[in-house]
Amino acid sequence: MTVADVSVRVAERGAIKEAVELGPSPSATEAQRARGKLTVRERLNLLFDPGTFREIEQLRRHRASGFGLEDRRPHTDGVVTGWGQVEGRKVFVYAHDFRIFGGSLGEAHAQKIHKVMDLALAAGAPLVSLSDGAGARIQEGVTALAGYGGIFRRNVAASGVIPQISVMLGPCAGGATYSPALTDYVFMVRDISQMYITGPDVVQAVTGEKITHNDLGGAQVHSTVSGASAFLYDTEEECLEEVRHLLTLLPSNNREVPPVLPCEDPVDRPGDTLARLVPADPNLSYDMRSVIEEIVDDGDLFEVHANWATNIICGLARIDGHVVGIVANQPASLAGVLDIHASEKAARFVQTCDAFSIPLVTLVDVPGFLPGSDQEHNGVIRHGAKLLYAYCNATVPRVQVILRKAYGGAYIVMDSRSIGCDLSFAWPTNEIAVMGAEGAANVVFRREIAAADDPDAARAQRVKQYRQELMHPYYAAERGLVDDVIDPSTTRQVLADALDVLRAKHVPLPERKHGNPPF
């Protein structure tokens, strides 16, 4: 082969790759834009640092025949795979191209995804999926279904080893939905993202119910009702920018710690407003987010599931430049009670933080578990046990701060000393007890109150007595269940010191195959 021949081949290669990157046709690109969506390469440009994306298997084509497939063999087979950098750190990706076979998954398509998933796990780097596909490629039959099985198995193998992030940028139906469900975080974009096991047509045929794609499995539904999506955004650009931000808060794998940033927010900054933000009266509401913003670096909280189970707050933040996971009751929603959804939300978050060596800070103001037959019949015992299990199983540094109420089993579940919290602190407004003083008095002194000439006065006296004897702010500290009662204004400094002393914490795990959590 002469030099001229080589030049021809190189030019041919360049032309093929240029055509591949432009997409299958201008009309397909126009159709994608008409759906209000970006193209796959526009998305990759938003996700990665400029000029860092390296594509693999760009020239892959399917080998299927029948139903006209032998005449349609586009390069990439509808999925772009490779790696790049996000803020200078390596991240792997696979991204469906809806313009090619509707982003549907066939044998070659699946093998490309399997390859990049294996590479991500071997390299110890996060994996991001940009999902915009119509499910299994029907023309390829069962081989497409087997391709999904290979993805699910790799999702599970990578779970807790590398961060896995699913970004839903189009439809996702049937068995395909189980891959995002197995990953650590799911992002969705309003109006263009949908996930459901059975679509509206099947729902109507089977049940008679008429429902739209978005009402059945849209971004709003999964971010507020089902809890399947952790994040909701209005545009793809905003969504992918926040994916980049989340990656800066996570380690590359479970053998590393999250990146530490220089902290310009003084650790000893006094939180003089904290005592005013939290009313001393346990029956008054307030927004726990305002407390968190006073405690963390620069008031920056990256909240997870912000629109679902709003009676508990879970999010990532930094204290003294180090990433921490925040779990906090939210008195502004359902008075901050724990219920089925809040327990599930927090349990999943605690488990994720523990998997990736992110210390936990738990802010407690909880009146108990939500009462009612609906909660009991739908398994609040089982779901509440998930949060209990997650905390008990966590080996990362764990620090608890009790702001006000901490009643009954909910106090125990919210990372109390008795279940393994390393350090527990309380504000002088804390009330740690089996239940509130009013309820306790009604139980303990029921007969006496009923027999009194003035039941209301007798009840008020016993409530006061119970509160003075068993609910004063130093009761738990006197018994070693709280390490110190602190000035609220020093909370940030206390947490920074506690996390610093626990930085090298190591807990040997028991010899067992795995535990058996209450799924």
UniProtKB/TrEMBL annotation:
Q: Which domain of life is it from?
A: Bacteria
Residue ranges of domain CoA carboxyltransferase N-terminal in the record: 6-262
- CoA carboxyltransferase C-terminal domain: from which residue to which, for each copy? 266-501
Annotated GO molecular function terms are: ligase activity
Which segments does the entry list as coiled coil?
A: none
Q: Does the keyword Manganese apply?
A: no
What keywords are assigned to this protein?
A: Ligase
Q: Where are the transmembrane segments?
A: none
Q: Which InterPro entries does this entry report, sorted A to Z?
A: AccD/PCCB, AcCoA_carboxyl_beta, ClpP/crotonase-like_dom_sf, COA_CT_C, COA_CT_N
* SUPFAM superfamilies xrefs: ClpP/crotonase
Kindly name one Pfam family recorded for this protein: Carboxyl_trans
Name the PROSITE patterns on file. COA_CT_CTER, COA_CT_NTER
* UniProt-listed Enzyme Commission number(s): 6.-.-.-
Q: What is this protein called?
A: Acyl-CoA carboxylase subunit beta
- Organism name: Streptomyces castrisilvae
Q: Give the source lineage, highest ranks first.
A: Bacteria, Bacillati, Actinomycetota, Actinomycetes, Kitasatosporales
